[in-house]
Design a protein that fits this description.
Number of helices: 16
Oligomer: single chain
Distance between the termini: 52 Å
Number of strands: 24
Radius of gyration: 28 Å
Largest sheet: 8 strands, mixed
Strand order of the largest sheet: 7-6-5-3-2-1-18-19
Helix content: 25-40%
Strand content: 15-25%
């Protein structure tokens, strides 16, 4: 339920203000602003991918309104890891002020700098690693290693005179990680001993009991599926999931197959990961996608994007026969990722399309080909018990995830009054070890549509949904405004409503009669006559066809 908008009070001296601008109540566009002493620190700036009811939208950004007029106060942007839902909005924020410093690990900055290069932005960046501390104005930052589905993820402890906040970013506690990099519970314990005043914890899997399975359990399953596949293998994953790509490379080597990377972001990101030493690529394993077609079908693995059913991604285009790789009988497709909430229908549509073409589709529901990158309830409880935070504000998840996380905090001993289930724009002040909600900002969605940013409104999306679902009707008429006589028309044209415009033969006399009645009543204003046409057609369509198309009346003076 949307909180009532209320302006926060002026920030008191000695108080830390925390405002999530995205990622609270949704899975994506993670961004949190910290303010102390008139200076700002931002943690993450990610994107959200559109739902099916947001046609034409490419990306959704956090609402930058609270910081747009305070860009000079921003000391830096801390990036916890390199996933799109944490770094994807950075180019759009830096368009407003290109010299805001970026702070993150080597891989995270490598990925974001490649994105910024496409936007022709050269950033100021500071590479940090676990155990490192940095002073940024009133903010003392300590970086802590956390395990996630991408290498080099970091949590950040933010210490100010008002208290200490620990922000996990996305994390889990895989005890046998593929890269040997554990979530540093010793650092968590030390911070807990020093005192954590506010804990912002990843909530994505808070409603999943127990512990998230091990990444290393996936490798043998992938190897078995690839080894037993009779023809080509196509593996779809997130383009930044270095661990999963490494497992696919290892399985391909074991079964004598070459690997072709498909999709611009996959090629770019894995190139960066290899260059920085996070991806081990055996000699002569990778092959150009165009040359892969010359190999026998049982000697190639395609590693592609599109695991979320995105319409323009590689896998969806394969399912629609719009890609040069034509899926056929005996091909094996592996969806090596979890489902982001809201993407289920798109993913199952792709699965059905691939299956209809004859492919054997292997996914999380019928084989262990993916594990989550997020801590489940058991892992979160460990963290709460180690840290013993005075206050908790769950982040990164839909409302049900936040509530589940808050219940874990309360069960572990955090007072219910000190456990905040926030929304985007909730203003929280931390002072003297107590965190309290002091306001609620009115934030919206900022849509990226082609080259336009923020120019598409909710009303525009409503119009697009109507056009997609109900169709479009235009009615043209020429009226003599002196006499009210109809000179031409009415003519009706429709799209997406009925195959034959003859269906409108019944309504044309009604429109003519309504215009004549309006003229007899002295109506001569073109806009008023247009509304007469709109109401007449609208009533007829609703009564006769139970539809609500977009109706565009065009009445001009003769």
């Amino acid at each position: 339920m949307q909180e009532q908008v209320s302006e926060p009070p002026t920030l008191e001296s000695g108080t830390l203000r925390v405002i999530p601008l995205g990622g609270v109540g949704e899975v994506g566009r993670n961004m949190t602003v910290f303010e102390f002493g008139g200076q700002l620190l931002i943690v993450d700036a990610g994107v959200l991918f559109p739902d099916v009811d947001q046609p034409g939208v490419d990306l959704i950004l956090p609402d930058f309104a609270p910081v747009r007029d305070r860009l000079d106060d921003i000391l830096g942007i801390v990036l916890t890891h390199g996933h799109e839902d944490h770094i994807g909005a950075v180019p759009y924020l830096l368009r407003l002020k290109p010299d805001i410093p970026l702070i993150g690990s080597a891989l995270t900055l490598g990925l974001v700098e490649a994105k910024l290069k496409e936007h022709r932005i050269s950033p100021y960046s500071l590479t940090v690693k676990e155990g490192q501390t940095e002073e940024l104005g009133p903010f003392s930052l300590e970086f802590v290693a956390v395990n996630h589905s991408i290498p080099d993820a970091l949590a950040v402890a933010i210490t100010t005179p008002a208290g200490r906040v620990l922000h996990t970013g996305d994390f889990k506690m895989d005890q046998l990680p593929l890269d040997g990099r554990l979530t540093d519970l010793r650092a968590f314990a030390r911070l807990g001993e020093q005192g954590v005043d506010l804990f912002l914890a990843d909530s994505t899997n808070a409603d999943v009991p127990g512990f998230t399975p091990l990444e290393r359990d996936i490798g043998p399953v992938l190897s078995q599926v690839i080894g037993s596949a009779p023809r080509r293998v196509i593996v779809a994953s997130f383009s930044s999931h270095v661990h999963r790509v490494q497992q696919v490379l290892d399985a391909a080597v074991a079964h004598g197959r070459k690997v072709a990377l498909i999709g611009r972001s996959m090629v770019r990101n894995m190139g960066i990961a290899e260059q920085l030493g996070y991806l081990r690529v055996p000699d002569n394993l990778l092959i150009d996608a165009k040359k892969a077609a010359d190999l026998p079908d049982d000697r190639i693995v395609y590693m592609s994007t599109g695991s979320q059913g995105e319409p323009m991604a590689v896998l969806a285009r394969m399912a629609n026969l719009e890609h040069q790789i034509e899926i056929g009988q005996g091909d094996t497709v592996i969806l090596a990722s979890s489902l982001i909430p809201g993407n289920e229908n798109a993913v199952y549509r792709v699965i059905n399309g691939l299956t209809k073409l004859g492919a054997n589709v292997v996914h999380k529901s019928n084989a262990k080909v993916h594990v989550s990158g997020h801590a489940s309830a058991g892992e979160l409880l460990y963290c709460y018990n180690i840290l013993k935070p005075r206050n908790a504000m769950p982040v990164h998840g839909e409302h049900r995830h936040l509530v589940a996380n808050a219940q874990l905090a309360i069960a572990s001993g955090v007072p219910e009054a000190n456990t905040i289930v926030a929304e985007n724009g909730t203003v929280v002040d931390l002072r003297n070890g107590v965190a309290r909600v002091v306001g609620q900002l009115d934030l919206g969605h900022v849509y990226v549509d082609g080259s336009s940013v923020g120019e598409i409104s909710e009303a525009d999306l409503k119009d697009r949904r109507i056009l997609a679902e109900e169709g479009f009707i235009s009615i043209f008429a020429v009226v003599d405004t002196l006499t009210g006589r109809i000179i031409a028309g009415p003519h009706v044209h429709a799209r997406g409503f009925a195959e034959d415009d003859a269906v409108f033969d019944d309504v044309i006399p009604k429109v003519r009669r309504a215009l004549l009645e309006a003229a007899e009543n002295g109506t001569r204003d073109i806009h008023a006559l247009s509304q007469v046409v709109r109401r007449t057609v609208g009533r007829w369509v609703n009564t006769q066809h139970r539809r609500r198309p977009m109706i565009v009346p065009i009445v001009i003076e003769g």
